[in-house]
């Protein structure tokens, strides 16, 4: 299981207690990282600025560029010691709410929460979101400053932090995960390719058993590979059947992959079946590229899946999602992380794994053009990749090129 990163809520509460501008920036970037890549943020913010929903960007045809956002959220260098301009904070919070389809009341509450924290650091949000005491303090004449011992100053900071943190609580906590995971299954793995991390040499009797589809009592083709630590190669489709368990209609606003234990492609033993790990036609299909730094779902047109839509579920209502994952460069473990919004609650993160362990996928090892499998240490050919009626045949990866004439093993 991937190590759990702090939520933006935790980062924001920590920022108040730490008391540095860089900690505030880290919390703000944590909010951005909760479903918003920089590219998606640019697109969402452009629409907000064009519709003039957030003041401070009047006269601009487009919202901030990716470079501007990187500069506004940086936690390194001299910039990190200063608060970002309030307009970027508000624009990011509104973009976050747009992305997660949060209602206007929730949006204002969330902006107020960030404004309160911004004020603690000495910043001045626009008047609509200033706390009354902050506005009075600005209007009052400046009082002479008196020197405070370091220990006392630290204690006073803690009091302010506790007070500000208390003001941030505005959502009830969900007592249980809002999604029920009813089924996790694998589509097309009976015809796909597998790689074993180590060298595997099957005895003639084992080859004969596999040829006759004798995988063990009650076991299927994919069960045999899974039990023997075989890893699907190049691509795989995972079917996730989920249902709502919240009394209120929930909304899934994002699904991303948490990668773990990434390595170069596996080069042990290749089982080449020549089929594809295809998905179903009657399900919502999300496409992932495991080689991306932060794999995010796209649709069949390679557009961000959740940019203009979400998945809603009433209590007891079910939905089947086919997740098509492809890898061309690395071997990685991964889990699915759903972002779920239930009215009256903060967005919830819920992970789905392979029975408590990460799913796995390896990229092809990629040999030369004449001998595309020569990086593997051992190889077996079966399914549609083998000659008709041959079943499963051992091959020499250093000479086999897909032509049955090159199947001979020295």
Notes on the structure:
The strands form three sheets. The chain has a five-stranded mixed β-sheet, with no helix packed on it. Strands 5, 8, 10, 11 and 12 form a five-stranded antiparallel β-sheet that branches. It starts with 7 loop residues before the first helix and ends in a 15-residue tail after the last strand. The longest helix is centred in the middle third of the chain and has 18 residues. It is α+β, with helices and mostly antiparallel strands and 410 residues long. The protein has ten helices and 14 strands. About 10% of the residues have low confidence. α1 runs antiparallel to α2, α3 packs across α5 and α5 packs antiparallel against α6.
- Biggest β-sheet, characterized? 5 strands, mixed
The ordered H/E elements are HHHHHHHHEEHHEEEEEEEEEEEE
What percent of the residues sit in helical stretches (DSSP H or I)? 25-40%
Instruction: Note poorly predicted spans.
Output: 134-174
Structural class: alpha+beta
User: Which word captures the global form?
Assistant: elongated
Number of helices: 10
**How many β strands by DSSP?**
14
CA radius of gyration is: 27 Å
| Strand arrangement, major sheet | 3-2-6-13-14
Strand content: 15-25%
Mean pLDDT: 78
**Amino-to-carboxy terminus distance:** 42 Å
């Amino acid at each position: 299981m991937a190590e759990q990163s702090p939520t933006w809520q935790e980062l924001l509460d920590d920022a108040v207690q730490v008391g540095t501008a860089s900690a505030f920036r880290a919390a703000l970037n944590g909010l951005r990282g909760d479903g918003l890549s920089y590219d998606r943020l640019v697109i969402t913010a452009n629409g907000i600025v064009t519709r003039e929903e957030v003041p401070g960007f009047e006269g601009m045809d487009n919202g901030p560029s990716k470079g501007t956002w990187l500069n506004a959220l940086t936690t390194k260098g001299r910039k990190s010691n200063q608060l970002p301009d309030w307009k970027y904070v508000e624009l990011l919070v509104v973009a976050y709410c747009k992305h997660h389809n949060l209602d206007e009341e929730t949006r204002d509450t969330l902006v107020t929460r960030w404004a309160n924290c911004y004020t603690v650091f000495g910043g001045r949000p626009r008047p609509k979101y200033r706390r009354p005491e902050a506005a009075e303090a600005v209007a009052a004449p400046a009082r002479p400053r008196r020197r405070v011992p370091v220990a006392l100053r630290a204690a006073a900071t803690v009091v302010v932090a506790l007070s500000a943190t208390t003001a941030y609580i505005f959502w009830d906590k969900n007592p249980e995960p809002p999604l029920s995971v009813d089924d996790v299954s694998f589509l097309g793995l009976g015809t796909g390719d597998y790689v074993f991390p180590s060298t595997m040499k099957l005895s003639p009797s084992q080859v004969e058993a596999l040829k006759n589809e004798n995988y063990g009592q009650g076991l299927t083709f994919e069960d045999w590979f899974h039990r023997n630590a075989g890893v699907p190669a190049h691509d795989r489709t995972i079917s996730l059947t989920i249902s709502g368990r919240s009394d209120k209609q929930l909304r899934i606003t994002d699904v991303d992959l948490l990668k773990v234990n990434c390595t170069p492609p596996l080069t042990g033993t290749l089982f080449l079946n020549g089929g594809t790990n295809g998905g179903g036609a009657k399900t919502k299909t999300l496409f992932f590229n495991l080689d991306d730094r932060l794999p995010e779902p796209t649709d069949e047109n390679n557009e961000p899946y959740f940019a203009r839509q979400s998945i809603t579920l009433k209590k007891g209502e079910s939905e089947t999602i086919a997740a098509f994952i492809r890898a061309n460069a690395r071997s990685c473990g991964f889990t699915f992380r759903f972002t779920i919004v239930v009215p009256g609650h903060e967005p919830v993160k819920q992970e789905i794994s392979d029975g408590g362990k990460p799913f796995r996928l390896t990229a092809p090892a990629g040999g030369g053009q004449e001998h595309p499998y020569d990086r593997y240490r051992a190889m077996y050919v079966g399914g549609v990749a083998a000659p008709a009626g041959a079943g499963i045949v051992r091959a020499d990866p250093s000479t086999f090129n897909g032509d049955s004439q090159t199947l001979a093993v020295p």
